[in-house]
Write a structure and sequence with these properties.
The chain is of the alpha/beta class and 478 residues long. The protein has 21 helices and 14 strands. The chain starts with 6 loop residues before the first helix and ends with a helix. Residues 40-154 form the Response regulatory domain.
Length: 478
């Protein structure tokens, strides 16, 4: 709580405080208040003089400031716009600020609230905290006091969102350590993708990235974000296939307290955490049908309704989708909504297979070897001519992800696997003379042996799906 500790400072009126700050040159425009530049603030107070003071204090420093003379007007404004912070007077005609705040929390209000009041009794402070206020400022106050309170709120929310998004990203893509922001390679296929990304990155258009697993769809999405005018805003990756169907709505849309069993507190979802930035929905073909209809409405209205909430919240997002499935066929089979498919398939970028990228595999292997050896603290393993020949001839069903996993496994073992490096097989035949299919077969079987026959672990190491291994083994066993 932010209570004045000096009677002298508390006795200064708002107007005098503003004048004092101006004369001293402390206009609060310095770096300590830089977070305010993009903030949207709602002021709720029945006193015109106080609203005017707050607007003059915050207006020049914030992106957007609105005022409301009572809680009814404030409620209407919350229904129409999204605010980062609400500055709320407690004693007002009709309904006091604490009661109104508690009501708003119950129907889906997540922004920070600062309570301002002339009565600093303990009961009011306790009620304010229970209602969800995050700061408490006693009237009268200096301009810098309210600016500091707002800046603290914005910093707290920013850190909270960044921490959540980082934790989520680590859970969702722990194996994607490098090349997140760059599409490496000089092959015609890689150059074509980069050129297309450069053309569409600064446009607000939604993008659909297609291609097999491991081709670098998240890398492409991050490249689009980094080249867009949202580069300094959040990039939030979401793997739709990794979230249980019963949890995905709460993860994406957020929820209010008591919305379902275990919802002990309200929380913003990933849509709101990505506000102002880019939301990357990977494996969009795995989104359950009920969620597809909800996503369609978000794309059309740019508003989200948290689970259990009575209010829709406006969001400003750039959407990027990705899939390794043929969505057109999924539509024909009734597993994907046709209207959603046509809504998100505005601009499609196809990521090529690694085997179709000419010599990019050699460059990528060298980069992975350098980066991963430094990360693991192990000496790099030389990539000799036999390995380069194997890299060039292998089919790479797991694409770039499989290549990365091969390099990491090589560093751990201290050498490339014998069969992959082109050394003699156990039966004495030269691997270099094998067909591409034979090379692929022996490599997958070798990894299966290393994992004790575990297809799940072999798939993880190879960077391919368990279904791919099942299909290959069924084919080989005839």
């Amino acid at each position: 709580m932010n209570l004045p500790t000096s009677k002298a400072s508390a006795a200064i009126s708002p107007a005098a405080a503003s004048e004092t700050a101006a004369k001293s040159g402390k206009s609060a425009g310095g770096p300590e208040f830089s977070a305010l530049a993009q903030a949207s603030i709602l002021i709720v107070d029945d006193e015109p003089g106080m609203r005017n003071f707050l607007v003059r204090t915050l207006g020049p420093r914030c992106k957007h400031v609105e005022e409301a003379a009572d809680t009814d007007e404030a409620s209407r404004k919350l229904d129409k716009s999204r605010f980062d912070v609400v500055i709320l007077d407690n004693i007002m005609p009709g309904k006091n600020g604490v009661d109104w705040l508690a009501e708003q929390r119950a129907v889906g209000f997540f922004a920070d609230a600062i309570l301002i009041t002339a009565y600093a009794d303990l009961d009011t402070a306790i009620q304010a905290l229970r209602a969800g206020a995050v700061d408490f400022v006693l009237k009268p106050f200096r301009s810098n006091q309210i600016l500091n309170a707002v800046a603290r709120c914005l910093d707290r929310v920013r850190l909270q969102r960044e921490n959540y998004v980082l934790r989520y990203a680590l859970r969702a893509s722990s194996d994607r350590t490098f090349l997140r922001d760059n599409l490496i390679g000089e092959s015609p296929a890689a150059r074509s993708v980069r050129e297309t990304i450069a053309r569409v990155a600064r446009l607000p258009t939604s993008i659909l990235l297609t291609g097999e697993s491991g081709t670098g769809k998240e890398v492409a999405a991050r490249s689009i974000h980094s080249l867009s005018d949202r580069a300094d805003k959040p990039f939030v990756p979401v793997n739709c296939a990794a979230i249980p169907p019963e949890m995905i709505e709460g993860e994406l849309f957020g929820h209010i307290k008591g919305a379902f069993t275990g919802a002990d507190s309200g929380r913003e979802g990933l849509f709101l955490y990505a506000h102002g930035g880019t939301l990357f929905l990977d494996e969009i073909g795995e989104l359950p049908l009920p969620m597809q209809s909800k996503l369609l409405r978000v794309l059309e209205d740019r508003r989200v309704r948290p689970v259990g909430s009575e209010r829709e919240v406006p969001v400003d997002l750039r959407f990027i989708f990705a899939t390794n499935a043929d969505l057109q066929k999924e539509v024909e089979k009734g597993r994907f909504r046709a209207d959603l498919y046509y809504r998100l398939n505005v601009m499609q970028i196809h990521l090529p297979l690694l085997k179709d990228r000419d010599d990019d595999v050699q460059e990528l292997a060298a980069i992975f070897m350098s980066k991963l050896s430094a990360q693991l603290g192990m000496p790099p393993v030389p990539i000799d001519s036999s390995v380069r020949a194997a890299l060039a001839s292998y089919d790479w069903p797991g694409n770039v992800r499989e290549l990365r996993n091969l390099i990491e496994r090589t560093l751990i073992l201290g050498a490339f696997p014998d069969d992959f490096a082109g050394a003699p097989r156990n039966d004495g035949q030269a691997a270099s003379a094998d067909s591409l299919a034979d090379l692929e077969r022996r490599h997958i079987i070798s990894v299966l042996k290393e994992t004790g026959g575990s297809r799940e672990e072999a798939a993880r190491r190879l960077g391919i799906s368990r279904k791919t291994i099942d299909r290959k083994l069924a084919l080989w066993n005839g």
